Amino acid sequence: MVASTRQEFGSLFSLYLAIGVAVALVVFATLAFALVRYRARPGRVPSTRSEANKLEAGAALLIAAIVAFLLTRTFSTEAREDGSAAQRVRIDVTAFQWGWRFTYPGQGVSVVGNSNRPPTFAVPVDRPVHFALTSSDVIHAFWVPEERFKRDAIPDKTNEFDLEFENPGREEGLCSEFCGLRHSGMHFWVQVLPGESYERWLAAQR
């Protein structure tokens, strides 16, 4: 079963935030120390030292280790989200200027909307949903902030991924890649429904 996208990417965001705050504190503390310790004052002769090779090498190694750790965690999280082979709903998503088309293969259902009338499509709660995402014109980005998930929609390429929505309700989605004058209105809505309600919605769209 696919892990909760919200939990997976929420944990990853918390990790990035914690490391970012720690790095910022170290940088600010170092600057404050340098400003106080080496400030200009009567009787102080400026140092002629221009290099600190060991310190610089240590800092470079630490930065490389942090980057490698974050990359490993990021790719492993992506792999867990994208690699599910469980039974799942499939939805083909096509982005275009300035709207979305959501098609349910084999179901005879397609939901289309644009910036004047954003589309609403439905997914079942606590069940993997497999998305196949592409674009018919320029690069867009499929973003559901509540799920902590974003993926580019690229012309002539299909990006596939799995998501699982754990809470019934209505979630907003939008394009997060500038794609033209009406980009800001390129929204959609995800209706997360319990199993029977989802099947009734699907039947009503046929």
Summarize the structure.
By secondary structure, this protein is an alpha+beta fold.
Instruction: Give the CATH class of the largest domain.
Output: Mainly Beta
Low-confidence stretches: none
The neighbouring-strand order within the major sheet is 3-2-1-5-8
CATH superfamily of the largest domain: Cupredoxins -  blue copper proteins
Q: Return the CATH architecture of the largest domain.
A: Sandwich
- Put simply, the count of helices is 3
Q: Report the mean per-residue pLDDT as an integer.
A: 86
Question: Which terms would index this structure?
Answer:
206 residues, alpha+beta, Immunoglobulin-like, 2 domains, elongated
Describe the structure.
- This protein has 206 residues and is of the alpha+beta class.
- It has two domains: 5-41 and 51-82, no CATH class; 89-205, Immunoglobulin-like (Sandwich).
- The chain contains three helices and ten strands, in the order H-H-E-E-E-E-E-E-E-E-E-E-H.
- The strands form two sheets. A five-stranded mixed β-sheet has the order 3-2-1-5-8, with no helix packed on it.
- Helix 1 (5-37) packs antiparallel against helix 2.
- The protein is elongated, with a radius of gyration of 24 Å.
List the helices and strands and how they pair.
Layout: H1 5-37, H2 53-82, E1 89-96, E2 99-104, E3 109-114, E4 120-124, E5 129-135, E6 140-144, E7 149-153, E8 159-163, E9 169-175, E10 187-193, H3 195-205
